[in-house]
Amino acid sequence: MYKFVINGGKKLSGEVKVSGAKNSVLCLMPAAILANGNYKFSNTPNLIDSISMSNLLSSMGIEFKFEENSIEIQNNGLKTFEAPYEFVKKMRASIYVLGPLVSRYGYAKVSLPGGCAWGPRPVNLHIEGIEKLGAKVEIEQGYIIAKADRLKGAKIEFNVSSVGATANILMAAVLAKGTTTIENAALEPEVISLAYFLQKMGAKISSIGTKTLEIEGVDELNSANENVIPDRIEAGTLLTAGAITKGNIKISRCNPNHLESIISKLRSVGFGITIGDDFVSLLSPNSIEPVDIETEIYPGFPTDMQAQWMSLMSIANGSSTIRENIYFDRFNHVPELIRLGANIDVDKNIAVVKGVEKLTGAKVMSTDLRASASLVLAGLVAEGTTEVLRIYHLDRGYEKIENKLKKLGADIERVYIDEF
Ligand code: EPZ
Fold first, then answer.
1. Are residues 129 and 150 in the same domain?
2. For the segment 206-231, what is each residue's pLDDT rounded down to a tens digit?
3. Whose CA is nearest to atom 30 of ligand 1?
4. CA-188 nearest atom, ligand 1
5. In percent, how much of the chain has pLDDT > 70?
6. What does the pLDDT read at residue 118?
7. Total number of domains constituting the chain
8. Which of 183, 268, 279, 374 could form a disulfide with 311 if both were Cys (CB 3.0 to 4.6 A apart)?
9. Range of the domain at 364
């Protein structure tokens, strides 16, 4: 077990590179179920979640070779079509195998993911979607069992914009017989990137980048390669690390177009931002003004940046509100930030953050990936020493974040502790 020991107060400066996107590679890998052959994903991040996804797909018979920042995949045909609870409970994105398995093999047995650190994470849209495509679905002893001779194209309308359900149904529809329309499709860059990758594999998808996707099913696909898009949430987290320390940093190998909502909010609280083709530079003001935010589906302010933003607002020059519209109870980081001296009140899905003069270092506990990131950011500015425990949560979605922060001048160490 590891913890971070952070001595706060260092202004960050310098340049750091952004890694490939976790939430892109996690939907690209299951797409390799759809066709035999060799795949190569480059600019991949070294994350626990990528390993978890490869372990799940290897258990079905797909072979992996991990290089420094690339993954080579060989699919010579699957041996099994199951995603056991042991895999799915560790990583919810395992549900992404459902669509491709039913679509290509006509059978899938996938564990229901259960809840996560901040509450229920339903998958009804995934199940309803493949039923609309003609699959027979039964829920037995915590498993989704889906069967189909061959999926048939259908009109599918999501009443909620869902990243995962859009990705799953997209991967199901590409081999279905006939035409599928997906209404209210998610527009997140990771979903768009998946659609373009499926096109590279021979899928017939039109209107990519709009909320209505048209898919003409084909009989067979071929393997392909892909360069993974930069991680917009890691980029936003690193920018916020520079901001909370009132430093001046440059993040490179990112896609500024994916960061518009974050950049706009940073500008509105006083930060100077310069944008290039693949970099963003941040210049800090003397004082950070408060601003209200609401999390929205893309291109709105991302829920995956809500916790990190709360850390920044906890030392702003006044009060701000944070309204969480995607997951109404994604506030596990609040009690831990309060331990660091933040002044935050939560009422249902709204947090009121009253900026304080300073935060003070303490031991705090990670509960989930983005909550952990918010605690690290707060530790960078808190007076004295902050210890962030259970940082395995962080390692799921950030590639050695301490090295990147150290490169920017942070005093942060990863320390082994002999804890359960
Ligand atoms: C993806 O999760 C991301 N995970 C999440 O990032 C991210 O928070 C989320 O999208 C929202 O942007 C990956 O890409 C692996 P959703 P996903 O389906 O697909 C409701 C991180 O930190 N919903 O877009 O599970 C759901 O409850 C992770 O990297 C249903 O009601 O999210 C939520 O309120 C955390 N029924 C809303 O839709 C369903 O069947 C959006 O969820 C599915 C979702």
1. yes
2. 999 999 999 999 999 999 999 999 99
3. 122
4. 12
5. 99
6. 74
7. 2
8. 374
9. 2-19+230-416
Of 227, 260, 278, which closes a domain? 227
Whether residues 220 and 236 fall in one domain = no
Cis link prior to 122 (omega < 30° from 0)?
no
Residue 403's CATH number = 3.65.10.10
Which of 116, 218, 275, 346 is catalytic? The answer is 116
Q: What residues does 38 pair with on adjacent strands?
A: 74
- Residue 296 CB–ligand 1 contact under 6 Å: no
Q: Is the CB of 303 under 6 A from ligand 1?
A: yes
Which atom of ligand 1 is the closest one to the Cα of 123? Answer: 40
Tokens of 14: 């310098």
Ligand 1 center from residue 304 Cα (angstroms): 10
Of residues 360, 234, 367, the one with CA closest to residue 302: 234
DSSP 3-state of 259: helix
**Ligand 1 within 6 A of CB of 222:** no
* 116 part of the active site: yes
pLDDT value, residue 142 = 93
Q: Out of 182, 197, 227, pick the residue that ends a domain.
A: 227
- C-alpha 263/C-alpha 301 separation (Å) is 10
Q: Take residue 257 and report the two structure tokens written for it.
A: 């177009």
Cβ-count burial 339-370 (b if 16+ within 10 Å, e if not): bbbbebeeeebbbebebeeebebbebbbbbbb
Query: Is the per-residue pLDDT at 343 higher than 90?
Result: yes
Nearest atom within ligand 1 for CA of residue 369 = 22
Dump pLDDT digits (tens) for 374-404. Answer: 999 999 999 999 999 999 999 999 999 999 9
80 and 96 share one domain: yes
For the stretch 147-201, pLDDT in tens is 999 999 999 999 999 999 999 999 999 999 999 999 999 999 999 999 999 999 9
**Is 382 found in the same domain as 269?**
yes
Token pair 């974040």 in the structure block, residue: 401
Position 361, amino acid = G
Question: Does pTM top 0.85 for this prediction?
Answer: yes
Measured by CA distance, the residue closest to atom 19 of ligand 1 is 164
